[in-house]
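User: Let's play a game. I give you a shape written as tokens, and you guess the letters that built it. Ready? Here's round one.
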């Protein structure tokens, strides 16, 4: 059980608590959801809060936008929390160190370039450089997108320890979205070749190519991606564009002191 949850159950602040009881209890609920609790019962059990208190806090956090609730999927990060996370991520060294490589990638390929980090069961765009083409894709900084559709999401999945859970929960967003065994096969292929491509998986007519950025411990610290109209990024173009995308990923790794797998 998280320490903050233990403090909330005890009803008194610990060394890292704020001393404001309601804030500590709300933080315990957010910690529980971040740690994987999805249902009301799981949140109550994880935090040790009384069920009426847990219910009241969950409802308030949903109303305020810090959490979201979807029938059948339970609680997850809300739009307000994701916006705050995106704002904080803009200040992180990763974005600053990666931006030159992202600019070069967009210039070299002629397509829009993005940098993503994982945020729970989603991927969060922390930097983007738009293509100069009149017909282009636009992914705004702070955009929260699925892990189970699109090349960048599949890269995160290919190296994720909880990939099987996410694959089991995956639902198609379009007719082109891979799910089930097809998605598992794609993830194995991505690990072998080191990059991923997609076309129309999240949004019809949009294609992308992505590669992992490995951190100092060999973890996937981020994913670098290019995206554009599927008419420009077909299978042959994707294979050709994989080379500059991989080069950008390696450049970012060197900048952050990471290492390839």
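Assistant: Ready! My guess for every position:
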């Amino acid at each position: 059980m998280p320490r903050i949850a233990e403090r909330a159950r005890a009803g008194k602040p610990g060394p890292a608590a704020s001393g404001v009881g309601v804030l500590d209890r709300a933080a315990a609920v957010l910690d529980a959801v971040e740690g994987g609790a999805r249902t009301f019962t799981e949140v109550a059990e994880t935090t040790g809060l009384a069920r009426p208190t847990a219910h009241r806090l969950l409802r308030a956090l949903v109303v305020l936008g810090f959490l979201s609730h979807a029938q059948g999927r339970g609680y997850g990060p809300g739009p307000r929390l994701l916006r705050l996370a995106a704002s904080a991520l803009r200040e992180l060294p990763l974005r600053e160190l990666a931006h030159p490589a992202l600019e070069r990638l967009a210039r070299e390929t002629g397509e829009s370039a993005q940098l993503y980090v994982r945020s729970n069961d989603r991927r969060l765009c922390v930097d983007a450089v738009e293509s100069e083409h009149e017909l282009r894709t636009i992914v705004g900084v702070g955009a929260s997108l699925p892990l189970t559709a699109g090349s960048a999401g599949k890269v995160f999945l290919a190296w994720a320890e909880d990939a099987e859970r996410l694959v089991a929960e995956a639902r198609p967003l379009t007719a082109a979205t891979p799910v089930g065994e097809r998605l598992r096969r794609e993830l194995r292929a991505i690990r072998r070749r080191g990059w991923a491509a997609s076309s129309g998986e999240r949004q019809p007519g949009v294609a992308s190519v992505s590669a992992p950025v490995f951190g100092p411990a060999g973890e996937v610290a981020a994913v670098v991606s290019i995206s554009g109209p599927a008419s420009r990024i077909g299978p042959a173009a994707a294979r050709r564009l994989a080379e500059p995308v991989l080069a950008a990923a390696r450049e970012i790794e060197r900048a952050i002191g990471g290492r390839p797998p």
